[in-house]
């Protein structure tokens, strides 16, 4: 289970365990084998091996400041040095001031709300400094070229939009190499995970999953499928200085997000959840522009709190730079044409909750929200993730790196017994 423990404040999650749930039984027809090869996979634990906070809280700050003042008396700085020091003590700009005010509102929620959940995690043995294996000195990740391939695919002719069901499914031998991954939704309808070779690389596709590999200019196959979703989760590539410096992915201007066809994909009362950075500008944009543009009513703001393996915040809570939490904005799509009564199966959405977990060291590898959102959507929901970088069982996923973390290099493999005749029958159907 991905939920380690829960209380009225939120949940402590084991993200790695959730991933593993979809790969208890995997099958491969690769390497020219006539018979299927069965095995079990686990996501590599070293990707969730954060042992210490990224920034240590400085001790004896007052003593250090006193020493600096004493030294300053003996070494009189010149005028230029004094100007530099004075310049550092500037007033906060508008964005920093907004972030400071927001932090003041949620600080006690994070501090008090996480205390009991972290203690419960320690009591059950999940949060502990003792590891079964030492962490790797350097964690290598697969070089992803999917986004570049999506750019190249723009040169291909557009799919005929009159196609009623733009979906291609895995067959007994996996995917046909000639199939178009950029213009059709690809589906694994089996109850087994499939290892397939796509673009000369091996990927593991979880059971009952669908994906569309494309950028925003070719998202129409998703709309043309006719599916209406009860839950839509977005993890947009927000513009910020860190992204520009690292050049890890292409950011998307906020104005472009309005072009996403969320109303065309949302079922009545669809729950829409958006991950947002700690920039007040982005949070304001979602609440005041993006959600109103989609006819989504803002109902709640939850916080994802990131901790180490021993339960410490990954950054000091009051750090002036990076905070140990990120925000999720939740709302419901209020269709202007559909006036059906809201399903009684869905509970009222709480305004504030905490999601606490050890974060992945892989950039933008967010924890799954499946378990925590289950009470707030219909009993048999159709779920969609936009800007996804991984797949989930019973979800449809879209993005220009949508299968990035499904690459076989992120998993370890174990042998499994040969399947029963029933399992083989399911795969050949």
UniProtKB/TrEMBL annotation:
<dbReference type="GO" id="GO:0008173">
    <property type="term" value="F:RNA methyltransferase activity"/>
</dbReference>
<dbReference type="GO" id="GO:0032259">
    <property type="term" value="P:methylation"/>
</dbReference>
<comment type="similarity">
    <text>Belongs to the MT-A70-like family.</text>
</comment>
<dbReference type="GO" id="GO:0003676">
    <property type="term" value="F:nucleic acid binding"/>
</dbReference>
<feature type="region of interest" description="Disordered">
    <location>
        <begin position="68"/>
        <end position="90"/>
    </location>
</feature>
<dbReference type="GO" id="GO:0005634">
    <property type="term" value="C:nucleus"/>
</dbReference>
<dbReference type="Pfam" id="PF05063">
    <property type="entry name" value="MT-A70"/>
</dbReference>
<dbReference type="InterPro" id="IPR002052">
    <property type="entry name" value="DNA_methylase_N6_adenine_CS"/>
</dbReference>
<dbReference type="GO" id="GO:0005829">
    <property type="term" value="C:cytosol"/>
</dbReference>
<dbReference type="InterPro" id="IPR007757">
    <property type="entry name" value="MT-A70-like"/>
</dbReference>
<protein>
    <recommendedName>
        <fullName>Methyltransferase like 4</fullName>
    </recommendedName>
</protein>
<dbReference type="GO" id="GO:0009007">
    <property type="term" value="F:site-specific DNA-methyltransferase (adenine-specific) activity"/>
</dbReference>
């Amino acid at each position: 289970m991905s939920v380690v423990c829960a209380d009225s404040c939120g949940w402590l999650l084991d993200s790695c365990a959730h991933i593993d749930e979809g790969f208890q039984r995997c099958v491969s027809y690769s390497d020219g084998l006539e018979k299927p090869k069965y095995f079990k996979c686990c996501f590599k634990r070293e990707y969730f091996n954060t042992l210490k906070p990224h920034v240590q809280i400085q001790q004896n700050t007052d003593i250090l400041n006193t020493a600096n003042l004493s030294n300053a008396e003996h070494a009189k700085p010149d005028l230029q040095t004094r100007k530099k020091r004075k310049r550092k003590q500037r007033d906060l700009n508008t964005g920093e001031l907004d972030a400071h005010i927001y932090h003041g509102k949620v600080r006690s929620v994070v501090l008090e709300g996480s205390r009991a959940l972290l203690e419960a995690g320690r009591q059950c043995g999940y949060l502990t400094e003792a590891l079964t294996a030492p962490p790797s000195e350097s964690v290598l990740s697969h070089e992803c070229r999917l986004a570049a391939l999506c750019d190249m695919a723009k040169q291909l002719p557009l799919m005929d939009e009159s196609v009623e069901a733009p979906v291609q499914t895995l067959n007994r031998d996996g995917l046909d190499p000639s199939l178009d991954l950029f213009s059709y939704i690809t589906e694994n309808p089996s109850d087994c995970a499939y290892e397939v070779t796509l673009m000369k690389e091996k990927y593991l596709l979880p059971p009952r999953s669908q994906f569309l590999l494309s950028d925003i200019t070719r998202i129409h196959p998703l709309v043309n499928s006719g599916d209406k979703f009860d839950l839509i989760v977005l993890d947009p590539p927000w513009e910020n200085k860190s992204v520009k410096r690292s050049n890890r992915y292409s950011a998307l201007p906020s104005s472009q997000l309005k072009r996403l066809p969320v109303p065309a994909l949302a079922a009545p009362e669809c729950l829409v959840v958006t991950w947002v950075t700690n920039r007040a500008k982005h949070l304001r944009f979602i609440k005041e522009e993006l959600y109103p543009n989609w006819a989504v009513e803002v109902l709640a703001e939850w916080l994802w709190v990131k901790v180490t393996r021993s339960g410490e915040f990954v950054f000091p809570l009051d750090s002036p730079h990076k905070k140990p939490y990120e925000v999720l904005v939740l709302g419901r799509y209020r269709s202007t044409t559909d006036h059906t009564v809201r399903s009684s199966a869905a509970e009222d959405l709480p305004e504030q909750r905490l999601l606490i977990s050890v974060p992945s060291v892989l950039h933008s590898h967010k924890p799954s929200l499946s378990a925590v959102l289950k009470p707030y959507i219909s009993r048999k929901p159709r779920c969609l993730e936009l800007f996804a970088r991984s797949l989930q069982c019973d979800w449809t996923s879209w993005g220009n790196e949508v299968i990035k973390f499904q690459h076989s290099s992120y998993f370890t493999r174990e042998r499994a017994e040969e399947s029963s005749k029933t399992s083989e029958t399911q795969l050949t159907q």
